[in-house]
Specification:
- This protein has 513 residues and is of the alpha/beta class.
- It has 3 domains: 104-232 and 271-407, Rossmann fold, CATH 3.40.50.1110; 236-269, no CATH class; 410-512, Immunoglobulin-like.
- Helix content is 28%, strand content 24%.
- It has 13 helices and 21 strands.
- The strands form 4 sheets. Strands 1, 3, 4, 6, 7, 8, 9, 10, 11, 12 and 13 form an 11-stranded mixed beta sheet that branches.
- A hairpin with a 2-residue loop joins strand 14 (410-417) and strand 15.
- Helix 5 (178-191) crosses helix 12 (384-398) and helix 10 runs parallel beside helix 11.
- The longest helix is centred in the middle third of the chain and has 22 residues, at 307-328.
- The termini are far apart.
Length: 513
């Protein structure tokens, strides 16, 4: 009898849960959303277990059946750009169909990284944006939709977010990523398509935080194992560790024994965003089922800290791109990124810039160079318009088929020529400098010690080259450009894009220095 009463009580407790398990959608499938054009689009959600679900959108109908946990998904066939349309979800155990209205079909881009991508149209305190008030007032674009993801570092992957799509208005745009906004505005204008932007950014975050745990393991990023241990010591358990140290010291003193030295706790306890995978889990995982056109990325400033961390960026950043592509399962989707700018950031700054350049070896990647936009003492350059324009120029040429230059002058190889070194470049047609004297080039001999060089541009056949030499280096072996935190001499191609930092040294040679 007692068992029957308990069983009845349990059934009563669970009945409201079952009744409440009507069909639902993730927040990313909200009113005002943009669905990706010209690709199969996944629609997914939750309901009662085994419920039959029907999805209706535009002229399509798709069916799905929930699994034992109530999860379901359906696929829409590719649609052309257009809208607005209504998305309707119904289930045979759901009383009232669920509707999402004002849905557009266009291109969806996820924008991520640290503070220079987070930097909103309203700017930051102490770091204003160029023409901020004017740009905010004009930010009324019915074909652009915005989703601003809240900052969220979590220990497990999140299936959903609390954030939804909004219209692009002066009120919503002023808090949104300026670089992403200027990128989308240009794409929408040139291609005449709706654009949806997902802004998932966190200032001061390292790349390791944005890679899934599976991605870190798969890439064998052993350097991040040490990062994880260091962050763990400084986050949730740091107070307990400090208390333990204090107790040990007190006991040692009471016993008249020497106090044992303990390892330092390197970061404060509030830096959860530095934990490997923490931002992927909370701010990227909710979107990996959402069909996208590609990603734009602006990050790397934090990864300059310490020569080892900067050197590891040449493996960490490509691992991030490959991880995201696996997570989305859409093949090698376009991944466009911004090379960090000139700034008095100390050792490692140029190493990160060069690691970003080397990442272009991955297929379907593009880089916007911003050396000429930086400020010596402000890590947040105010001219976000040009950053967005260069990203969109790369996208228009590389992805949308427009006849524009897609890249900055990029180093291809170096050759020895007498007592000089010659660097050969792609994407360098019309290479020129606005100054009479070309600076920021260096050469080195076998010892790898670089010295300032005299440089000049020379065209050889179809190639644009730079020849550089230094009297103190009789037998040069290496050449590099822009290897100081702040670069002051710039070379541009005919498309108006500046040359990237580079060194002819290999990854192995950099590691061994």
């Amino acid at each position: 009898m007692r068992f029957g009463v308990r069983l009845f009580s349990l059934l009563v407790c669970f009945m409201p849960l079952a009744a409440a398990a009507e069909v639902s959608l993730p927040h990313v499938l909200s009113d005002h959303a943009v669905l990706q054009r010209d690709k199969p689009v996944r629609i997914w959600g939750w309901s009662s277990p085994a419920e039959n679900v029907t999805v209706k959108f535009h002229d399509q109908t798709a069916a799905a059946k929930a699994d034992m946990y109530g999860r379901w998904e359906a696929w829409l066939k590719p649609e052309k750009a257009g809208g607005p349309y209504t998305l309707t979800i119904s289930g045979d155990a759901t009383a009232v169909p669920l509707q999402r209205s004002d849905i557009l079909v266009g291109d969806v881009w996820i924008a991520s990284g640290q503070s220079n991508m987070e930097f909103p149209l309203a700017g930051f305190d102490g770091a204003p944006m160029k023409d901020s008030e004017k740009e905010i007032a004009a930010a009324d674009h019915p074909k652009i939709r915005l989703l601003l993801q809240d900052k969220r570092a979590t220990p497990v992957d999140k299936a959903d977010s609390d954030n939804v799509w909004t219209l692009c208005t002066p009120e919503t745009a002023k808090r949104f990523s300026a670089v992403a906004y200027f990128f989308a505005r240009k794409i929408s204008e040139e291609e005449n398509v709706p654009v949806g932007l997902i802004d998932s950014t966190w200032g001061g975050s390292p790349a390791q935080s944005w890679i899934s745990s599976a991605g870190i393991a798969g890439a064998e990023l052993h350097s991040l194992e040490l990062e994880a241990a260091s962050v763990a010591r400084s986050t949730g358990g740091s107070e307990a560790i400090k208390a333990g140290y204090a107790a040990e010291e007190a006991a040692a003193k009471a016993a008249g024994k020497p106090v044992e030295a303990h390892p330092a706790i390197p970061w404060p306890a509030d830096r959860q965003e530095w934990m490997p995978s923490s931002l992927f889990r909370g701010m990227i995982a909710p979107y990996v089922n959402y069909t996208i056109r590609g990603a734009i990325w602006y990050q790397g400033e934090t990864d300059h800290e310490g020569p080892n961390k900067a050197l590891h960026y040449s493996r960490v950043f490509p691992a991030l791109i490959q991880d995201w592509r696996r997570q989305w399962g859409e093949g090698d989707f376009p991944f466009l990124f911004v090379q960090i700018s000139s700034f008095d950031g100390g050792d490692g700054w140029a190493t990160v810039r060069d690691a970003q350049r080397r990442t272009l070896d991955l297929v379907n990647t593009g880089m916007a160079v911003t050396l000429d936009l930086g400020m010596v003492k402000n890590v947040h350059p105010p001219d976000k318009q040009t950053v967005g324009a260069r990203l969109s120029q790369t996208a228009l040429g590389m992805i949308y088929g427009e006849k524009v230059e897609t890249a900055s002058p990029l180093f291809v190889q170096a050759t020895t020529e007498g007592n000089g070194m010659r660097a050969w470049f792609s994407h360098a047609e019309g290479l020129k400098s606005p100054d009479a004297t070309i600076g920021d080039f260096e050469v080195a001999g076998e010892d790898g010690k670089f010295v300032a060089a005299t440089a000049k541009i020379e065209k050889i056949g179809e190639w644009e080259t730079v020849i550089a030499n230094a009297p103190d280096v009789a037998a040069p072996k290496y050449i590099r450009y822009g290897w100081t935190p702040v670069v002051k001499s710039y070379l541009y191609n005919a498309g108006g894009l500046p040359m990237s930092t580079f060194t002819s040294e290999s990854d192995v040679e950099l590691m061994l220095k």
